[in-house]
């Protein structure tokens, strides 16, 4: 009997324990799932964050290019960033780099390109008056964000010989310093694009510049400041077709050049023979003969600027009709390209075309195609636009070759010297 009671007691205790455990599990309060930490967006993950960086970079470059570059000479020499741009610079860069000329904040400087030395800059603006600055995210460099920046600039420049007269290089700082003020008429203007690599960091919720360096720069401040180190600059066309006023200038200049060369095909073999004596006699005789054969005016205006240098500027041997040519019937595929040396003062073009030429030997009426390459300069005088000079770079039988090596080989076979051409 006692055994029976003990067994019942044990069974009861086990039942109570199981029930108690089950209730505990059933009514146990659920632990809250911890919320994920708020994700911090970066230029790498967010369009909005990227936009903030682009706006900051645009403001920085507008600020830095708003002053003459000579105002930064002391900053470059000492390595202390100008006060007005410190708001854009990261604390680490200011703390560790200030006072060191090797600080990675490259300021605008004197640079030489195409025989001109640029001594000041301004950022070009589009038709909406917005600065022409293009920036973009490249990738991450550690904790920083790397951006490229391209900005279009109008540069104030001097010919190298003039620059050497008014500037000297400080032997200690290696900075080019103005020794006297050039006459305002000596300056000319060109357009270039500057390229920079910029490292950006996030600091106290804002984006700041860690480094801003010229693309393809040479290490060492002395090397970088040498004015022939211009790899970060690209020459732009001076006349921009997107700017209405400049487009009109370009169209007028191209129309003059096209009309000028179309006039020259009026000079067949017999007229070229007559022209030579007039060309040798004097400028008035030269002009009178061109007027006589209706080869002097374009759109009822004189097309050629004739002065005491006309023999050199309009060399008889540079005219299109060459040896064994009876007549040029037509010009085709004319291409008029702004020369890299075009500036606010120098209107220079590269002109090429194919000419359909009637041969003076061979079968009667046989035509051949010749390709011509010219260097042409224009001049404005007395409020009129003129062709100032022409230079025949080369001509050869056949159309323009796509390969320069083919052109040279064909030119060696087919090109005729100007003296031979005009001797018949």
Gist?
This protein has helices spanning 2-27, 47-64, 73-78, 91-97, 160-166, 221-225, 244-264, 269-281, 283-292, 310-313, 404-414, 418-421; strands at residues 111-113, 116-123, 133-141, 144-159, 167-169, 176-178, 188-203, 206-214, 233-236, 297-298, 301-302, 325-338, 347-359, 367-381, 384-397. The chain has 424 residues and is an alpha+beta fold.
Q: Using DSSP, what is the number of strands?
A: 15
Shape: elongated
Number of domains: 2
Detail the poorly predicted runs.
22-27, 403-424
Secondary structure class reads: alpha+beta
- Please give the largest β-sheet: 7 strands, antiparallel
Name its key features.
424 residues, transmembrane helix, 15 strands, membrane, 12 helices, four-stranded antiparallel sheet, 2 domains, transmembrane, Lipoprotein, 31% strand
How is the topology of this model organized?
Elements: H1 2-27, H2 47-64, H3 73-78, H4 91-97, E1 111-113, E2 116-123, E3 133-141, E4 144-159, H5 160-166, E5 167-169, E6 176-178, E7 188-203, E8 206-214, H6 221-225, E9 233-236, H7 244-264, H8 269-281, H9 283-292, E10 297-298, E11 301-302, H10 310-313, E12 325-338, E13 347-359, E14 367-381, E15 384-397, H11 404-414, H12 418-421
Helix pairs in contact: 8-9
Biased composition (Low complexity): 403-424
Region (Disordered): 397-424
Transmembrane segments: 7-27
């Amino acid at each position: 009997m006692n055994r029976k009671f003990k067994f019942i007691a044990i069974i009861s205790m086990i039942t109570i324990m199981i029930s108690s455990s089950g209730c505990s599990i059933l009514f146990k309060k659920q632990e809250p799932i911890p919320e994920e930490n708020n994700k911090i967006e970066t230029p790498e993950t967010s369009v909005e964050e990227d936009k903030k960086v682009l706006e900051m970079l645009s403001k920085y470059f507008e600020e830095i290019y708003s002053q003459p570059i000579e105002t930064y000479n002391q900053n470059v020499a000492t390595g202390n960033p100008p006060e007005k741009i410190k708001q854009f610079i990261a604390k680490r860069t200011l703390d560790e780099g200030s006072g060191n000329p090797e600080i990675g904040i490259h300021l605008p400087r004197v640079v030489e390109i195409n025989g001109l030395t640029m001594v000041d800059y301004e950022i070009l603006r589009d038709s909406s008056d917005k600065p022409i600055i293009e920036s973009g995210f490249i990738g991450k460099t550690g904790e920083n964000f790397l951006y490229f920046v391209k900005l279009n600039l109008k540069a104030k420049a001097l010919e190298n010989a003039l620059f050497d007269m008014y500037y000297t290089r400080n032997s200690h700082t290696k900075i080019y310093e103005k020794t006297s003020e050039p006459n305002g008429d000596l300056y000319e203007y060109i357009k270039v694009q500057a390229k920079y690599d910029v490292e950006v960091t996030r600091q106290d919720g804002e984006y700041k510049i860690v480094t801003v360096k010229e693309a393809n720069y040479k290490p060492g401040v002395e090397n970088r400041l040498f004015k022939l180190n211009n790899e970060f600059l690209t020459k732009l066309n001076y006349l921009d077709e997107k700017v209405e006023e400049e487009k009109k200038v370009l169209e007028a200049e191209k129309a003059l050049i096209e009309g000028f060369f179309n006039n020259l095909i009026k000079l067949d073999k017999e007229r070229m023979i007559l022209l030579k004596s007039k060309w040798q006699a004097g400028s008035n005789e030269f002009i009178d003969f061109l007027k006589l054969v209706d080869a002097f005016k374009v759109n009822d205006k004189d097309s050629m600027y004739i002065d005491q240098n006309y023999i050199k500027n309009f060399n008889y041997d540079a005219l299109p009709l060459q040896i064994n040519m009876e007549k040029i019937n037509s010009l085709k595929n004319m291409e008029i390209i702004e020369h890299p040396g075009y500036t606010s003062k120098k209107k220079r073009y590269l002109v090429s075309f194919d000419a359909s030429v009637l041969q003076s030997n061979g079968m009667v009426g046989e035509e051949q195609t010749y390709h011509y390459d010219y260097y042409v300069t224009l001049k404005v005088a007395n409020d009129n636009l003129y062709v100032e000079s022409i230079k025949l770079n080369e001509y050869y039988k056949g159309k323009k070759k796509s390969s320069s090596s083919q052109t040279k080989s064909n030119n060696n076979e087919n090109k005729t010297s100007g003296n031979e051409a005009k001797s018949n």
